[in-house]
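Protocol step 4 of 5: obtain the predicted structure for the target chain.
Materials: sequence only (see below). No template structures provided, no constraints applied. The aim of this step is simply to have a reference model before the mutagenesis design in step 5. Sequence pasted as it appears in the construct record:
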Amino acid sequence: MFEQLLILLSDPIAIGVAFGSVTLGVILGALPGLTGPMAMALLIGVSYSMKTEYAIVSMMLIYMAGAYGGSMSAILLNVPGAPASAATALDGYPLARKGHAGRAIAMATIGSCIGSMMAVAAMATLTPWLVEVSLLFTSWELLLLVILGIVMAGGLSGDDPLKGLIAGALGLMLAMVGLDDLHTHPRFTFGSTYLQAGFALIAAIVGLFGISQVIVTMAPKDIGLVRTAASVGRVIPRWADIRGKFRVIFQSGIIGTFVGILPGLGADVGGWAAYGAAKRTSKEPEEYGKGSIEGVTAAETGNNAVIPGSFIPMIALGLPGSAGAAIVMAALFVHGMKPGPTFLIDNLQLFEYMVAGLMIGTVVMLIVGLLLAHVIVHVLLIPRENIMAVVVALAVIGAYASQLQYGDVWMMMAFGMLAVIMRALAFPLAPLILGLVLGKLFDEFLRNSLIISDGSLMPIVQRPIAFALAIIVVLSIVFSVPAVQRGMSSWISRVGKKKLAQE
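Step 4 output (structure tokens):
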């Protein structure tokens, strides 16, 4: 690990990539309507021509910096640049209204960097251990892990778990299009030669995140960019603000890392979970929502710790913990690598380079964040029409550059329209992305499992780990049903009232 850190520090190109990726992520994350995963989707095609180490670290840093960048507009405009920064706006904007925008940005930056560094340390520690455990798995366990990841992502995303499960199943179905790997038999191609290669992953991701976001952002009902010239003031962190916040930072970092490991939750859940825990354990909970520095710190520490945390199951098990991690996984596929139990065995140096890159990127984010604070105010005044025009251009370039096929551009537009329809019907996109990315692994593990067992499903019952995973999958699906959830809530309420009556 230390060797890769020295290699990265001695490479001026790698340092330039880190600064460029973090700067791009912060700016795009700060602009309402643009997010880190969207920026990653737009640039994944371009990263194909980059050196593997640079490309993967760049994707990771854009994702991490994008989550932090959303705090800028949340504090200055009360318009979160990304869903992850919604909790930050509760206290950040009141602080800005009181003339303390600089203090809020400074503590958001400190919290984001410490939370990210904690999660990177967890990534370096937990990933090898998780890989050792996963090496005990056969194709049956890996198959059930893929199913569990999609089920959890679907069940925990959005307000309606059933819609999340449907979105995940749709992603798996779309991944089945094309020639199968064993007999090269065309599946669901409808006679199209283009579809024999399956849906282009890069074009699909760019359409789902890029084109759909442009259409949604440019809709008349969208509030657009709030035109304001809020004064930032001093952004150098004050010791008086930092002192006494170490407990809430440590607590929020742990919560964010844990949330990141769970598939499908995302940085917004990490931010809200950390904010809620901080408020419950605070000595001044009445200040939350009125301009609490502690609230800003907790929210930003939690949502940024999610990002490196989501890479842990992606690398060790091949299960991305978030949509952004799924895009990083897609980038690894593009560069000829397959995350999972054997990833560290085959690519240990790359893993160490990724950890070192995230460490360096966290320090870079601290520098860039404080330097850009005064610039972001002016960037936020750029008309959204100009920004979206650039986004569309990058989307077209990214979709075409991956395979140099015009069909990919049309495919990108088709997935963009699919995403718009799903958003309108309140279907979450994260499970769809996970299903699309994990579909090939699902197909491979299912085929290998059935070949080894001669078509029998009995190994699921005969193998303890597989049986435990199968039970978890079934319970996750059952408890995703709204009627079951209501019944459980009613039962818990009756039990609680009965105990109170007995007391």
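Step 4 remarks: The two ends are 57 Å apart (CA to CA). The first helix runs from residue 2 to 9.
Proceed to step 5.
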